[in-house]
């Protein structure tokens, strides 16, 4: 086994929301910090496959989930000012359609106030319909939270890790942790990288491995993180279809916040998720029965939803610890290890606060870590465009290498933007990696036109690398319901 001789001060396992924000806040500490990520890119788990909602902070009753949601939400406007990942305050409604649900709004209001949330009001039917005319007119009342919003979660992970790496933090992709040995001086972390085994030494370790955080807990020798998994499927509709103001929730249940209808940060309508318990953490497939049920349930909120504007389905797997709460604590057998497991909803919203708690715990254990906020503005990659059709056509035909060349016509992504994304210090070896950074491939044709053009640039930049001009899911064995399949299924149901 190859050994890394120089020890790290800190290893972060996992490059999702928690791992990337922890790295970002710690980036100016002057420490040797390594981030290990088993996937081929960052933000490949539930950090990219979620609703992207920045929650109000009124739904959770106890523990970290209740305590961290509201302060986490308050951090997002300033965080976006520095990282430019895509955040917008929209407000949100929890809608009541029955007398019992209307009574439940008062319970949510009281819980929110107990959690310190100050911007909550119960609105009447007329107030709701004036704010959002597409809502089902049978609505009776709604709990309005002014400060709720939407964000682009994978862009947040990319932006935070980008700045962290620029400040000297080391990111190692395709690095799966397979063993952890402990002695008086070091934690010895064994990993598999490209079929080879390697060992890294560190003084401290953070377990932010998402769906794998239970396995890391076992490798440490404790049972502190004990997970089950809940899959949720989503439907995403074409850009411009998300012509909504606030996020729209139905009344929450024991399985979660229920089916929501929202506009994404970039203006796509999105609905979901359902809640499928005890699922395989690797199963991100979608199915006709689940998606048609989600769509039918969402029509209770917005009756005029149009199945014809669907562009793709996807699913995400949520991690649920047996405690029902986030696990954020030193290992019960090894205090040099800090667990951050079971980060289910509202993990995205609470992410900035989770990262700060982790760093505080490391400091308590003796690591001289420094928490830094935003100082240098990150230049955004994605910008709003509205090119006139003649110019768009002319720029599509420009030669490879011309920065003005339009590579993705649906989202009007230029070659300059793609090369910018590839030159920011993070390895990008897939067309989906470019898609998450630039939106090339996220439009109506879902990459049919631009994916080979993106792969062409990737091959030029990453000479010698094996670049495939297909999307990640093609190679995963995961089955996803396609647009035409869903439209046919809905047509059958409506006949």
Description:
By secondary structure, this protein is an alpha+beta fold. It has a domain at 389-464. It is 31% helix and 24% strand. The strands form 4 sheets. Strands 1, 2, 3, 10, 11, 12, 13, 20 and 21 form a 9-stranded mixed sheet that branches. α2 packs across α8. The radius of gyration is 23 Å and the shape is globular. The termini are far apart.
Main features:
alpha+beta; nine-stranded mixed beta sheet; 31% helix
Q: How many strands appear in the DSSP assignment?
A: 23
Radius of gyration: 23 Å
- Coarse structural class: alpha+beta
Terminal residue distance: 63 Å
Low-confidence stretches: none
What is the number of helices? 13
Largest sheet: 9 strands, mixed
The amount of beta strand, in percent, is: 15-25%
Mean pLDDT: 95
> Which overall shape is indicated by the principal axes computed on the Cα atoms?
globular
- The helix content, as a percent range, equals 25-40%
Quaternary structure: single chain
Ordered list of secondary-structure elements with their pairings:
Blueprint: E1 2-3, E2 8-13, H1 17-25, E3 33-36, E4 53-54, H2 63-83, E5 87-89, E6 92-96, H3 99-114, E7 120-124, H4 125-131, E8 141-145, E9 149-151, H5 153-166, E10 170-172, E11 175-182, E12 187-193, E13 196-207, H6 213-220, E14 227-239, E15 247-249, E16 260-263, E17 268-272, E18 276-277, H7 288-298, E19 310-321, E20 327-330, E21 337-341, H8 347-364, H9 389-396, E22 406-408, E23 413-414, H10 415-422, H11 431-438, H12 451-461, H13 483-494
Helix pairs in contact: 1-5, 1-8, 2-8, 10-12
């Amino acid at each position: 086994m190859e050994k890394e001789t120089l020890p790290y001060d800190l290893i972060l396992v996992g490059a999702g929301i928690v791992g990337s924000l922890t790295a970002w806040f710690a980036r100016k500490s002057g420490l040797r910090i390594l981030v290990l990520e088993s996937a081929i890119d960052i933000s490949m788990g539930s950090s990219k496959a979620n609703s992207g909602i920045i929650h109000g902070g009124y739904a959770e009753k106890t523990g970290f989930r209740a305590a961290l949601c509201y302060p986490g939400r308050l951090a997002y406007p300033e965080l976006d000012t520095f990282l430019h990942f895509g955040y917008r305050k929209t407000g949100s409604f929890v809608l009541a359609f029955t007398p019992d649900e209307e009574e439940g709004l008062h319970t949510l209001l009281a819980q929110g106030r107990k959690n310190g949330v100050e911007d909550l009001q119960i609105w009447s039917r007329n107030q709701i319909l004036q704010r959002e005319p597409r809502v089902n007119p049978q609505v009776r009342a709604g709990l309005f939270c002014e400060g709720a919003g939407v964000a682009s979660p994978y862009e947040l992970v990319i932006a935070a890790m980008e700045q962290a790496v620029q400040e000297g933090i080391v990111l190692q992709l395709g690095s799966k942790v397979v063993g952890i040995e402990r002695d008086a001086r070091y934690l010895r972390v064994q990993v598999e990288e490209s079929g080879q085994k390697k060992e890294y030494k560190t003084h401290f370790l953070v377990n932010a491995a998402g769906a794998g955080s239970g396995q890391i807990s076992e490798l440490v020798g404790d049972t502190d993180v004990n997970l089950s998994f809940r899959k949720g499927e989503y439907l995403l509709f074409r850009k411009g279809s998300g012509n909504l103001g606030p996020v729209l929730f139905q009344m929450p249940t024991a399985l979660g916040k229920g089916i929501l209808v929202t506009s994404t940060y970039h203006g796509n309508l999105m609905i979901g998720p359902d809640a499928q318990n005890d699922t395989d953490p690797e199963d991100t497939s979608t199915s006709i029965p689940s998606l048609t049920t989600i769509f039918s349930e969402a029509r209770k909120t917005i009756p005029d939803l149009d199945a014809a504007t669907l562009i793709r389905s996807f699913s995400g797997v949520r991690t649920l610890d047996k405690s029902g709460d986030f696990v954020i604590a030193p290992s019960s057998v090894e205090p040099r290890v800090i667990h951050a497991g079971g980060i289910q909803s509202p993990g995205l919203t609470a992410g900035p606060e989770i990262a700060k708690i982790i760093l505080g715990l490391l400091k308590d254990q003796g690591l001289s870590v420094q928490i830094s906020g935003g100082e240098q503005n990150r230049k955004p990659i994605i910008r709003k465009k509205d090119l006139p059709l003649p110019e768009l056509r002319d720029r599509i035909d420009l030669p490879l290498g011309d920065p003005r060349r339009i590579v993705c016509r649906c989202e009007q992504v230029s070659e300059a933007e793609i090369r910018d994304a590839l030159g920011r210090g993070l390895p990008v070896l897939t067309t989906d990696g470019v898609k998450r950074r630039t939106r090339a491939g996220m439009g109506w044709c879902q990459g049919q036109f631009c994916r080979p053009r993106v792969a062409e640039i990737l091959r030029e930049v990453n000479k010698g690398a094996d670049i495939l001009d297909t999307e990640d899911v093609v190679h995963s064995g995961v089955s996803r319901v396609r647009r035409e399949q869903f439209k046919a299924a809905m047509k059958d149901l409506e006949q």
